[in-house]
Batch of 2 targets.
Target 1
Amino acid sequence: MLWVKCASPGLRIARKLHTVNKKSNISKIFLATGGLLATGVIGCYLGYRCFKGKDNNSELSPSHFVKYEISHKQDIDSSHFLLELTPLIRQNVNMWSLMTAENLWSVEVKQPEVMVVRSYTPLPLQFNPVSKELEILKDGDNADGKLCFYIKKYENGEVARWLHQLPKDHVIEIRGPFIDYEFPHLPNESKRSRECLYTSRSNTEIPNEDEDSKFTYQPYDIMMFTAGTGIVTALQLLLTESPFRGSIKLFHTSENIQQLGPLNSILLKLQASNRVRLQVFESDKQTRNKILEDIGKAIPRPSSYKGKLPFSSISGRGFEPILALVCGPEGYISSISGRKLDLNQGPIKGLLAAKGWNFENVYKLS
Ligand SMILES: Cc1cc2nc3c(=O)[nH]c(=O)nc-3n(C[C@H](O)[C@H](O)[C@H](O)COP(=O)(O)OP(=O)(O)OC[C@H]3O[C@@H](n4cnc5c(N)ncnc54)[C@H](O)[C@@H]3O)c2cc1C
C-alpha cells in the first residue's frame, strides 16, 4: 500500500468511519443507533484533533505521521518479535480509554525507504525493564502513549523485516488510530474491571467472576477465529481499558503456541479469569485438515441477542454467540468463513456457513 497514493488522511478516517458504519453487521442486529452514535462521537473527536493538529502535530492522529522511538524489542523466535514504541512527545490522549473494547483499531507504520505503510494492532502492554516482564496497563494509564506490538517477520516481507533490524532508540513514524471493527455502543453501561489480570496469585486461585449482574444490557458473546498474529485482535479486546463484557470463545491456530512468547501466559490468565474460552490448535501441513474438522465440530449455531433484560431471566445463561470474527492469513479465512475479496467481505462459506452463520453475523478482518 503506497502511502503517497492514499487519499488525504483526514478524508481517510472519515471514509474509514463511514466504512465501519457499513461493516458493523452486529449493529444491524441491535442498537443500530448506538453504534452510529459511537462512531459519530469518536469521528468528531478525531476530526477535531485532526483540525487541532495544525498546532499540535505531536498527538497520534490519522491525518499525519507522529514520531515514536523503539523503546524495547524482544525476539520470541526467528520470525516473531515484540516491539514497544514510545512517542518522542508524551501523548495526552489515552487511546485505551477512548477506544475501549467497542473498537478494534490499528495504526500504520511508515517505511520511508520504500514509501509504504503497513498496519499493526497495538496492545495495552508495556515492558518493565526491572522485572523484564510485560505489564498490562491499568485504567487511566496510557504509559505516556507507549504502544506494544506482536509482529511476524516474513522472509521476503518489506516492513516487518525492516522493523526487526532497527536498533533500540531508532525513530520511526506512525499514524492512526484506524478503526477496523466497531461494536455497538451501549449507552451508560458499566465498565468491566481488569483487576483479575493484575493479581500474582496462581491461576487456580483466581475466583470465578460473575460480573454480569452489574450490567444494564445482557453482555453479548462472540466467537473469534484467529491464526498466527491474528490473535492480536482478540488480545486487544480482552486487555484494553473497559474490556469486552461478554464471553469470547477463541479458536486460535498456530504452528506452535510458543510463538506467542509472553503473550501465552497472558492468554492463560485471561482464561483462568473466565474472560476467554480458549481452544488452541497447533497445526502443520499434515494436521491442517484434521484441525479444521475439529474446529468445525466445536462451532455452535448462532444465537440471537435479547437486549436489555432483567437479569433474573438470564442468570446461568450458557455461551450464546451472536457474532463471529475471523482474522488470519488468506487460506485460513477461506476455510473458516469463505474467501475475503480485498476490501469486500465476500460470501460467507466454509465452516461457519455449514453451521448456519451468514453475512449478518460474520466479519472477516484482514
Ligand atoms: C488492520 C491490520 C492489522 C494488522 N496487525 C498486525 C499485527 O499486529 N502484527 C503483524 O505481524 N501483522 C499485522 N498485520 C499485517 C501487516 O500489516 C503486514 O501485512 C505484515 O507485517 C506483512 O508486511 P510486510 O511488509 O513485512 O510483508 P509484505 O512485503 O507485505 O509481504 C511479504 C510476504 O508475506 C506474505 N504475507 C503478508 N502478510 C501475510 C499474512 N498475514 N499471512 C500470510 N502471508 C502473508 C505476502 O504474501 C508476501 O509473500 C495487520 C494487517 C492489518 C490489515
Note: Residues 106, 118-121, 149-152, 154, 156-161, 180, 229, 232, 329, 366 surround flavin-adenine dinucleotide (CB under 6 Å).
Target 2
Amino acid sequence: MSARPATTAPAPAAATGSSAVLDAAGLSFAYARSGAGFGEVSLAIGRREIVCLLGGSGCGKSTLLRVLAGLEAPAAGTVRFLGQPLARPHPRSALVFQQASLLPWLNVFDNAGFGLDFKHQPAADAAARKARVREALAAVGLAAHERAWPAELSGGQAQRVALARALAREPELLFADEPFSALDAITRAEMQALLVDVVRRWHAAVLLVTHDIDEAILVADRILLMAGRPGRIEREWTVGIPHPRDAHAEAVTALRLNILSALREASATGVPPSPTPDEEPST
Ligand SMILES: Nc1ncnc2c1ncn2[C@@H]1O[C@H](COP(=O)(O)OP(=O)(O)OP(=O)(O)O)[C@@H](O)[C@H]1O
Ligand SMILES: [Mg+2]
C-alpha cells in the first residue's frame, strides 16, 4: 500500500505561530573572519516537535543551530523562545553535540547533573534536582552506572550521559548537532529510537542537525533542507509516518529518494528543485 509518506512545501519553513517553542524571523549570520555563515532564514519549531536540519557540509547548519540556541548573535533578524526575545541560551533549552564532552573528574551522576548547580540550592531543591538526574539516567538506561567514570564508558554510553544531562534540565527544546555521527550503526539506531522515546516522555521539542537522510526520516516530524552558500532553508517535508518507523517501509523509501534527489540537485546547482505538483501538501 502506498500511504502518502510525507508532504512537502516550498521554503521558507512554515511557522507554527503561538504554539511555537522557538520562532525565528529574517535571521542571517556572517563570521567576521571568513564572511561565511547563512542567508536569510525564518522558521518555527512547535512544542514537542522533532525537526531535522539536513544539508551539505559547510552550508551553515551548525552556525544556524548556534544562533537559534542563543550562543551567537545574528547579524539580522530575531529569535524568540517561548515568545520572548532570546539573547543568550535559555534555561529551558539544552544542547547535545557530536562529542559527549564529559568532565573526566566527575562520575556519571555528577556529569549528568552538571550545570544544575546543586551546591547553591536549598536542601529540598537539591533533593528534587537529584531526583531529576536519577530519572534522566534511568530513562537513558544508565541507572546502574551512576558511579562509573567517563573513561569507563563506551561512546554510546557517553552520549547517553550527555542526553541525560540535557533531559535533567527539563528542556522545552533540545538542540542536537550530529549527536550520533561518531557511533557505530547499531548503537546509532538504538540512540535514534531512544531519542524519540525520551523527548516524547519529557514533552520536549528537538532541533536535530544531521547529514544522515535515514536518521532524519526515522526521527523527524519535519525535515528542513538547507542549501546554497550562504545557506538558506530551501525545502521542507512534513513526515507523517507513525513510529516506530521501518527503514525499509515503502513510505520511508519514497521519502528517502525524494530528499536524495533534492540534495543532489542542491549540490549541483546550489538550490534544490521546487516540489512537483504531486509533492505539494494536501490542504
Ligand atoms: N568560527 C568560524 N569562523 C569563521 N568561519 C567559520 C567558523 N565556523 C564555521 N565557519 C564557516 O562557516 C560556514 C558554515 O559552517 P558550519 O559549521 O555552520 O557548516 P555546517 O553546515 O554545520 O557543516 P558540517 O556539515 O560540515 O558540520 C563554513 O563555510 C565554515 O567554514
Ligand atoms: Mg556542522
Note: The pocket of magnesium ion (ligand 2) is lined by residues 61-62, 177 (CB under 6 Å).
